[in-house]
Amino acid sequence: MSGREILQKQLERGIAALGTELPDGAVDRLLDYQALLQRWNAAYNLTAVRDPAEMITRHLLDSLAIIPFVKGDTLADLGTGPGLPGIPLSIAAPEREITMVDSNGKKVRFLREAIRSLKLTHSHAVQSRVEEVEGTFDCITARAFASLADMLGWGGHLLAPNGIWLAMKGRHPEEELDGVPEGFTVERIEAIRVPGLDAERHIVVIRRTG
Description:
The chain is of the alpha/beta class. The chain contains six helices and seven strands. It has a seven-stranded mixed β-sheet with strand order 3-2-1-4-5-7-6, with helices on both faces. Strand 2, helix 5 and strand 3 form a beta-alpha-beta unit. The longest helix has 19 residues. The chain is globular, with a radius of gyration of 16 Å. The termini are far apart.
């Protein structure tokens, strides 16, 4: 069995465990993304995760685990890094308009190449600080790049009136809840099981108030 076939089995098992329905060809595209990330990572150091099997768990399955919470036609992924969770979410729902934001030029160059080679026609990569991004989005994802207070302070203006903000966290962010700025409320916090990952994962669902 080739290396890719072993990774494919691992990915398919994980997707089955999540109970997630993906479009035709999604598994191949996810594996193409992982291979591209691994190739670029050797030269550009885009992620600390080096092992391909770990990339499947910590990057792909970790991103796919939030699919049940994602809503709306437009999504912004803030502090996306090499496209996490933005690229897996784009592959899972190719019709959704997804804007991935990062200030790091190397990561955005990688993102543009990934978007082009994976033919993600509704995805866009923007090199910018979060506070300088314009527009509003039905859904915002942010994968542990800052505290809840900082995330909302920098990017709160991007959340549409009825939109939802999905903050991906490791441990339960109990100590961050008092810092949530006025105008936002934490609707719920749920523990998430990522297949194959022996670590805590939580999703914080935030909405505008009033």
